[in-house]
Amino acid sequence: MLAFVAMAFAGANVVGGYWVTDRMLQMFKRRPAPTTDKAAK
Amino acid sequence: MNATNIGYLVQLAFIVGAALFVIGLHLMNSPATARTGNRLSAAGMIIAVSAEVIFVTQRAMSASATGRSSSAAWRVGGGLGLRMARTVAMTSMPQLVSLFNAVGGGAAALLALSDFMASTATASWPAALPASTAGGRSSSSPTSSIGSVTFTGSLIASAKLMGLIKGQPILIPGGRIVSWFTVVCGLSVSIVLILAGAGVVTYEHGRPLRAARSWPWPAPWSSAC
Question: Is the pLDDT at B102 greater than 70, yes or no?
């Protein structure tokens, strides 16, 4: 019983943690060449 | 495939998983490769966890409820964590991370507790504890303390971030004394449990602590324990 709760906790932590990290890192994507934009001006 | 071979394969899977963690962490050094690193390390985690679940299921053939319930626990917890991670708004991310930190600490504390209970469940306790008990307890005592502090502390932090409770410090009258009392109690109980696990002392309900045998005690790691 204790182990069941512990493993459910651990599962939530691990899966959620990786997914959240992925979502946050997704925001770090390079914007499509902002330098060329500046150069056009 | 027999149990020994599966044991080897599980060890191999752990090594592969560990290698993927290291490579993944290294890739996290740079923002350009961080996402790849995170995914690589997630793959390592999937390998290690599946290996462990398979191992437990195989080993617990006679009582395969253990295996089934462990994979069920993973599915329940993982599904819940996944749903929370997918649906949470970017702006309320800190609360969620704090909550994940709390359940991580809670998991560690509960595992240590269940480990301890399993080690005392032997019929002839405290006469014949396995020699590994002292080692197990010297790791499970700090794990349970640190885990519970993480669990409760992170829950409070998360509740503060969610605005469920006020941001100013919560002061309990005499809280400092209570904290120190808790620390001293926890430390002394840990020491007694480790010594009892090593067979140095024995304790019985309602009786004072006494030495299990006269000096010299065998080293906890010797098989004579």
Answer: yes
Name which of A4, A12, A20 is nearest B103 (Cβ-Cβ): A12
Tell me the HSE value of B95 on the side-chain side, using a 13 A CA sphere: 13
Residue B219 CB-half CA count within 13 A? 2
Structure tokens at B70: 């462990």
Residues B8-26: pLDDT tens digits?
Answer: 889 999 999 999 999 999 9
How many Å lie between the alpha carbon of B219 and the closest alpha carbon of chain A? 31
Per the DSSP assignment, residues forming a β-bridge with B211 are B201
CA B65 – CA B58 distance, rounded (Å): 11
Q: What is the pLDDT of residues A6-39, one digit of tens each?
A: 889 998 999 999 999 999 888 877 665 554 444 4
Mutate to test the interface with A, among B74, B99, B158 (most CBs of A within 10 A): B74
What is the overall mean pLDDT for chain B?
81
* Residue B219 CB coordination number (10 Å): 12
For residue B123, give both structure tokens: 């019929």
What is the pTM assigned to this prediction?
Answer: 0.75
Chain A residues in contact with B101 (beta carbon < 8 A): 13
Cα→Cα distances A15→A23, B81, B100, B221, Å: 12, 6, 10, 37
Please report the ipTM that was assigned to this predicted complex.
Answer: 0.70
